[in-house]
Amino acid sequence: MDDEQLGTFVSWDYVVFACLFVVSSGIGVFFAVKERKNPSSEFLVGGRQMTCGPVALSLTASFMSAVTVLGAPSDVYRFGGSFILFGVAYTFVVIATAELFVPVFYRSGITSTYEYLEIRFCKGVRMAATLIYILQTILYTGVVVFAPALALNQVTGFNLWGSIFATGIVCTFYCTLGGLKAVVWTDAFQMVVMVVGFMTVLVQGTRKTGGAASVWEVAKNGNRLDIFDFDPDPLRRHTFWTISVGGTFTWLGIYGVNQSTIQRCISCKTETHAKLALYFNLLGLLVILVCAVFSGLIMYAFYTNCDPWTAQSVTAPDQLMPYFVMEILGDYPGLPGLFVACAFSGTLSTVAASINALATVTYEDFVKQCCTNLSNKASGWISKGLCIVFGVACTTMAVAASYMGGVVQAALSIHGMCGGPMLGLFSLGIIFPWTNSMGAAGGLIVGIAMSFWAGVGAFIYPALDINTRPLSLSMEGCLQAILWTTGYCNSSVFHRSSLADHWYSMSYLYYSAVGFSATVTAGLLISFITGHTRSQDVKPWLLRPVCNLFCFWSKKYKKMCWCGVHHELKQPNNVRTYDPRKKSGNINQIKFYLLHEPEYNRCSPNTTLP
User: Where are the transmembrane segments (predicted)?
Assistant: First the structure.
């Protein structure tokens, strides 16, 4: 298609887009006024009175970011509809998070996820994990801000730096004013905008391509519907196994132990609300996933005879979706602006969640450790100041994201390299009672080293086409004669080591699995070499026996799998975990600790505690 035929942004598009920022900022102002007298604890966790509905929408909006809105349709356009298999991974991830991780975090009464690591292991492990999370989140947020801004700038002429700074300023504004409640309710609004934007593209795109039957036929002829590829080769980019297995580990690192997710779950009024939020969130994830995949198929049907990327009408795959939108909606003032609002809704929700989570872990894991006698007023001001600091940091980091390649792969690679070892670390604490502090620290180091070795190596030595297998694209129907292509062939052949062709060519979705496996294996080995923790010495509410998830097992067999841990000792629902090293806590916490801890440490496997 000719570039001159494309529409550009008009005043109505800017009005629609500006409404997104105005409403988002307004929600922040509303909660700033409404909650102005509440202490900093409520600022960071919403007073632990949130319900499942808005939290579910917030979770969906935060992790279905502009990476999904722009990157997923492009991925389907180039590689086919196997992207829909992420629905399998999402299902496993949500079930594991709701039944395995959230109960432990919720009952522990923590604000920072990494506080658990100090209670279970030691302060050093907690500090290391917090620093890794901060690095991971700032890097990921940079991708989320920069990539859609660049794609929209180059296709629609939308101002690049204006959109980046507007995103950073607005997110920082409503995070600083309204805290977690503003983030959650703004995310809920932005989730609605994302769905409306997608539906607009789906309806108009289907109409332009001759109907749903035509789209399906063209996609089938172009091999875009060859979804189930059961090749077990771990070097293949997307197969059933890489997506369902590797994707599960990648997204479990994002959902199961990520501060941004857990913070919103523990903000719910009850554990049941927290679990329901995750299950309702699964429905939202599947809706957005289906919309993204069908958008990619419709886009392929529309460009089946003239691929704009090969024809160099766009310079990167991530620009395909906005280019397509401008072509089908450019004649309708305001609708391109609606799609841009859809993309930036994902960006705003993710950035806001990141800023709030970064402020929380920094306050809980560093500030409170250094300044133990802060007043509520001082705590509130420090929390707001941290939101501003991380808002600036995330916005600044956006520039570096231009060197990270495609947005989907870049974003999931970052999460995989950091999230896998973090998932392994928390699994060592929650699932394996024998893990000691040395095992946790050593496992984390080994896991980070292994996953970064694979991830950074793949960045330097990209995988060959034989593993990524992009599908064919056509320029037969283009109006202009193109004398060059941007195909996948290499103009020069250079020597690649066996390491580059195998280890570095592994699917990016396995980075998390590699980090997880290395962390757990090394952690258990080091623990047994250095003297493992006795099962009887671990507080049962810091563990979650996997066998308990299988309700059809008898109590006798479940007890056999408890490995000596006394899960009969129940922590009262209204009592938060008390850590005597902090020398602080309410009277009920201290009484509960003094009453049960001595008995608990002395009890034999057959002791029944009151």
Answer: 12-33, 54-72, 84-106, 127-152, 158-177, 184-203, 238-257, 278-303, 338-361, 381-404, 410-432, 444-464, 508-529
CA dihedral 418, 384, 263, 444 (to 10 degrees): 30
**b vs e for 419-447, b when ≥16 Cβ sit within 10 Å of the residue's Cβ?**
bbbbbbbbbbbbebbbbbbbbbbbbbbbb
In the block, tokens 């529309």 appear at 302
CB neighbours (10 Å) of residue 316? Answer: 17
- Which of 312, 255, 331, 304 is CA-nearest to residue 64? 255
Residue 268, φ and ψ in degrees, nearest 5: -70, 155
pTM equals: 0.81
As given in the structure block, the two tokens for residue 443 are: 């496992």
CB 43 within 8 A of CB 383: yes
The SS3 assignment for 167 reads helix
User: What residues are paired with 50 via a beta bridge?
Assistant: 268
Read off the amino acid at residue 607: T
d(CA 128, CA 559): 34
Q: How far, in Å, CA of 573 to CA of 409, rounded?
A: 41
Indicate the length of the chain as a whole number.
610
Q: How far is CA 293 from the centre of its chain?
A: 19
593 alpha-carbon distance from chain centroid: 36
**Cα-atom radius of gyration of the chain, to the nearest Å?**
25
On whether the CB atoms of residues 205 and 455 are closer than 8 A, the answer is no
Distance of CA 288 to the CA centre of its chain: 14
pLDDT value, residue 598: 40
Q: Report the amino acid identity of residue 270.
A: T
E strands in 416-529? none
For residues 280 and 70, the answer to whether their CB atoms sit within 8 Å is: no
Contacts of 81 (CB under 8 A, 6+ apart): 219, 224, 225, 226, 227, 293, 296, 297
**Are 164 and 146 spatial neighbours (Cβ–Cβ below 8 Å)?**
yes
Q: What are residue 268's DSSP bridge partners? A: 50
Helical axes 160-208 vs 320-329, angle rounded to 10°? 60
At 467, list the tokens.
């593993």
pLDDT in tens, 410-462: 655 677 788 899 999 999 999 898 999 999 999 999 999 998 898 888 877 77
Look up residue 500 and give its two tokens. Answer: 């580059």
Give the Cα separation of 361 and 289 in Å (integer): 30
Contact (CB, 8 A) for 562 and 536: no
Q: For the beta carbon of residue 537, count every other beta carbon within 10 angstroms.
A: 12
Q: Is the dihedral of CA 138, 139, 140, 145 positive or negative?
A: positive
Choice between 92 and 25, residue whose per-residue pLDDT is larger: 92
Residues 308, 155: contact at Cβ < 8 Å? no
